[in-house]
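Just scan my protein:

——
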Amino acid sequence: MNMEETFEDWRLTDCPRDAIQGLPEFVPTETKVSYLSSLMKVGFDVLDAGSFVSPKAIPQMADTAQVLSALPESDTRVLAIVANLRGAEEAIEHGRPDLLGFPFSISETFQQRNTGGGIEEAWRRLDGIRNAAERASKDVVVYLSMGFGNPYGDEWSPSLVSEWSGRLHTDLGVETLALSDTVGQATPNMVTQVFESVSSALPGLSLGAHLHGRVEHATPLMEAAWKGGCRMFDGALGGHGGCPMAKDELVGNLPTELMMSAPQEWGGKIKSWNAEALFEAQQMRTEIFGLSRVG
């Protein structure tokens, strides 16, 4: 048997949508297309490329349809965020997104801030989105925000995360759930504890990690999630971004480039990356964001 066959499979998503959405100055459509086109060639499993949401809420994503239409074909799957059924229908009609992402928070406060409706409304929206996506043969990724704590004073505990994960999986048929640390307050111990709790209770659920935090915390947090059973990870090149609905001060994503080979140390399969495309993307990234958050 080839030794590589014993290594564990894992997936990596780069999230330029998350990195760009909070920038104060609008990034021109052609610039977005050039940047995302380079990222499509790097070899990431998924590219979180845009969102079909109200342009009043997220002005940077007003051109998502045009951007997605211009992206090259590659083995990288395209994900787009939606916040309601209308957005999902627009994404499905557009045709390019392979996956639809929906932010579902176990924090009533944050769900109101993020999507303009509470948890009950989010549940109804997700039910409609899943039904529409299933009819169109599209996959849905649910981002369980506030998965590692709550800064707004709402109830939170690891058992509450497991409870909501179970409800989403059992009652709504959610198959892919990304536990998310929107405000960057997770610790490695907490991350491992939460992932172990959810993965042991729901072995049929595909679990991902969408974590925000300081650059030096990227590898420890990723390793903590890996130890807890996570095999899908999100990052953003350079560690830029953050949710503009969370706090006045954005907490950046974990830098993708620090995550691209780390799982090899923990028994993960060795992935091949297009170094030329990565270099090109890094050059454009500095033009869009200015000084790098990494290094």
